[in-house]
Task: inverse folding
């Protein structure tokens, strides 16, 4: 039951978010051999002024050991 949560700065259209979700879904199903029915994908806009407190500290810095792709920036 994969669940993917994407957090990013605002500014993408609903069409872009849908295209992103579909592209991720396609690769996820192909690579993990799971059913599309078992996948959920959330996309949340987080303002840059809230990024450190809402995303960087709790989800990046606190979980560095679980990141397969680490960011090229620090805060």
Result:
């Amino acid at each position: 039951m994969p669940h993917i949560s994407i957090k990013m700065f605002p500014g993408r259209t609903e069409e872009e978010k849908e295209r992103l979700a579909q592209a991720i879904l396609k690769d996820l199903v192909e690579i993990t051999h799971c059913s599309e029915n078992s996948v959920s994908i959330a996309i949340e806009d987080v303002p840059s002024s809230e990024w450190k407190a809402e995303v960087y500290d709790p989800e990046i810095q606190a979980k560095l050991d679980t990141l397969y792709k680490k960011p090229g920036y620090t805060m």
